[in-house]
Amino acid sequence: MGCGACRPAKLPVQLFPSKAQSVENYIAVWYDGLNRGEKTKALEKQIQNVVKVVEKFNDRVQCRDFIEKVTLEKIFLIVSDDDDSKNFQANVQHFKQIYKIYIFCLEEQSTDPNSGSYTSIKSLCTSLKEDAKQCDHDMIGYQIKGPTANSNRQKASDMHTQLLREIILSTDDDQMKELYQFCQDEYKNSHRDIEFLKELQKTYRSDTAVQWYTKEGFLYSMVNKALRTRAFEQLYFMRVFIRDLHKQIDKLKMNTAGKAPPLYRGQHMDNKEFDDIRKNEGKLLTVPSFWSTSTNLEQALEFALKPCNEEKQKHVLFKIDVNRNTSFSVANIRNLSAYQHEEEILFTMGSVFRIGQVERMSEGYLLIHLTLTDDIDKGLRTLQQHYKNSIMGTNSCLNFARLAYLLGKWELSKHFYKKCLQIEKDQEHLVVIHSDLALIELQLGHYDDASTYSTSIEPKQVTSIKENKTSASVLNNTGIMLHRRRSFNAAMQSFQNALAAYAAESCNNEELLGTIYHNIAAIHNENGNYKEAHDNIERCLEIRAAILPKLHPTLAVTYNCKAVTYYISGSCDKAIEYAQQAVDIDRNVLAEDHPQTILHTRNLNFFKNKITSSSQ
After folding, report:
1. How far is residue 345's CA from residue 28's CA, in Å, rounded to a whole number?
2. Lowest CB count within 10 Å: 202, 310, 368, 393, which one?
3. Is the pLDDT of residue 70 over 70?
4. Was domain 146-378 assigned CATH 3.90.176.10?
5. Cα(433)–Cα(465) distance, rounded to whole angstroms?
6. What pLDDT, on a 0 to 100 scale, did the predictor assign at position 109?
7. Which CATH architecture has domain 406-508?
8. Percent of the chain with pLDDT over 90
């Protein structure tokens, strides 16, 4: 229990999305029950020219366990033409992760010509290449805001997606070296991709982003996979390219006038994803990635009606109506695309649509009507704008660090803050970065590391800072660290010094002032000074309620502190009332596994259990 946003929690290092196996939308899993390792090494390298990640197994239990744990990619399963492999295939073919199964026979003479087996590595790789394209086209990760128990959290997730989008688009540098090095490391085993990378390095310019995005190579898959899964590290590396791509789309949109004709998109869709759309007519659908459509109905139908695994997938055609007055960028890229015959219309990332009627067509596909819209929840729009103002600055790396902190991803936030130390030259900014790193280490329970970052800030650095709010903020953060170390008197002195610095600097950052009062209240609670605790938390709430959006999670922190104050002063009913308000906000704007949500929910349940046990 506590008044802070959360107690220290050990969380795993997670620079990529949870359980991600590849930067691409697919991986190859090769089960070779005969264990012909040496014989297949050269073949494996050829497959890696098509599919970057190839996982080989000769133990069926290990292979099955691996398949079950894959959640963010589709699997191209390669098996041998022998009884053991056939039995294994029958055992796993129903898994939703498996996109297609390929029977690959190394001994041509033993293969039944009617079995559908691949008897050459060339034919196998040709099939893998075509299926990889289709998989990239199908793996979008549509986000639907429907009337479900998690609809509020889905709205919040969309808000965080839009914030990430804003951070990427605000990039003001042209640094591509990190992207090139990242791609060099990722694709070092693929001769084809390394050649693509070399050409990219030699010829890329900001006005060629669309051409490179549509060109056959890894960029299309990697960009959209990262956007779909919110892979922060990859998105940071790709920020310049994504910004350039968006700007090109936006420029073409601005040069286009008149009412848009209907647009079409054909694809295969997993049964569950289709059912989610079908059940939510009239609701909103967000596309987190860039989204390709066409004015050519026949071209779109070709994509929709390609053969698929009909036990797992549906043939789907989207028909999209576009109002050109929308704020989302959409443009005809036919003259820039590497595939001009597709008459491609490209939507920028994060576009939002209203789901219309779903029809079953006699030709064997399902027609989904969508309308591009600007409709966004007003409460979350206000909160999003507040976050945008408080998070975003001129340092892209720092922006990523702050957003990761907002999402409760402490290790990820620390990773970006430490990267900032290598980039930032401004002394005042470095002081703030060290101070914020100390707070992150506290959240992770690394007290010695927190102390190291805190003590690296010399007093003269704090007192010499002229930037509005900075020295008061550093002193406040120092107080938090002392509080966590249970040095209550020293913490109180630091918070009092923060108040004095705030007044001396004539700060106008009321959010910081509210935070200082909140922390003073927490110290009074620790010392048993409940009246003083009440007085300070009321000052805090008065300030925060006046300046923060109603759904801001910092208000939830305030309500939680009031709940704790009421509980330890003997008012359990009032504690439950305010704890419930805290949890209600958390459920609207934070993920279920966010440390703040976990803490506040735990406190509410604790108070309720106390009431129940005392009445028995």
Report:
1. 31
2. 202
3. yes
4. yes
5. 13
6. 47
7. Alpha Horseshoe (1.25)
8. 64
DSSP 62-99: HHHHHHHH--SSEEEEEE-SSHHHHHHHHHHTT-TTEE
Residue spans of the domains in the chain: they are: 1-16+527-616, 26-138, 146-378, 406-508
Strand order in the sheet with 74-79: 54-57, 26-31, 74-79, 98-103
Task: Determine contact, residues 190/49, Cβ cutoff 8 Å.
Answer: yes
Cβ 519 vs Cβ 483: under 8 Å: yes
Distance CA 523, CA 223 (A): 47
| Of 272, 221, 304, 303, residue with least CA distance to 25 | 221
Question: Which CATH number applies to 26-138?
Answer: 3.40.50.2300
Residue 118 CA to residue 81 CA, distance in Å, equals 9
Distances (CA, A) of 426 to 411, 415, 423, 461: 24, 19, 10, 12
Helices 121-138 and 37-47 sit at what angle, rounded to 10 degrees?
A: 50
Say if residues 614 and 586 touch (Cβ distance below 8 Å).
no
Q: How far apart are CA 274 and CA 312, in angstroms?
A: 11
Asked whether this chain's domains 1-16+527-616 and 406-508 adopt the same fold, the reply is yes
Which has more confidence, 337 or 99? 99
Residue with tokens 């997670």: 14
Which 3 state secondary structure label does DSSP give 147? coil
Tell me which of 252 and 5 has the higher pLDDT: 252
What tens digit of pLDDT does each residue of 586-613 get? Answer: 998 898 889 999 999 999 999 999 887 7
Identity of residue 181: Q
At residue 258, the pLDDT reads 55
CA atoms within 13 A on the CB side of 248: 24
Residue with tokens 């803490």: 599
- Rounded to a whole number of angstroms, the CA Rg of the chain reads 27
Helix or strand run (H / E) with residue 318:
strand 313-321
Q: How many whole angstroms separate alpha carbon 514 and alpha carbon 537?
A: 9
Pairing state between β 26-31 and 330-332? unpaired
How many CB atoms are closer than 10 A to CB 294? 23
Contact 356, 285 (CB under 8 A): no
Contact present, 586 and 558 (Cβ < 8 Å): no
Q: 1-16+527-616 maps to which CATH number?
A: 1.25.40.10
Cα 588 to Cα 144, 293, 542, 562, 603: the distances in Å are 15, 33, 22, 20, 18
